[in-house]
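Our example copied in:
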Amino acid sequence: IGDTVGARLISHAGSLTNLAKYPASTVQILGAEKALFRALKTRSNTPKYGLIFHSSFITRALAKNKGRISRYLANKCSIASRIDCFSEYPTTVFGDAMKQQVEDRLKFYETGEVPKKNLEVMGTAVEEATVGQAKLAKKDRKKKKKAKK
């Protein structure tokens, strides 16, 4: 979703841990609370997006697909924040895979080309991340050995 939008989401939530605890529906309208409560009070339509609206993915989508992309992007953002917050070793594998999924979804809405299933994409990402984490764990063990000497 981009550095600026990600930083705004974390700032608005208070911390990365708080953002990771939010469901995707809350992440989608984060920053539009005033409009949400006004809509609930007047019984009108609730907002489709908050801070996520400033993402380049939503600006590239057609008007009729902005709500769909917003929901999909909020889902991926919620998953990514949980991975970033609760994983032992930092990795960009999942973020890159999810970014490609959003790109494929945009292409699907434009051309009709069916994207890969989430299970396939995340399966390959888990395999890549496992290899990367094994290397990082090995480096950590070496550092700990040197520190003991």
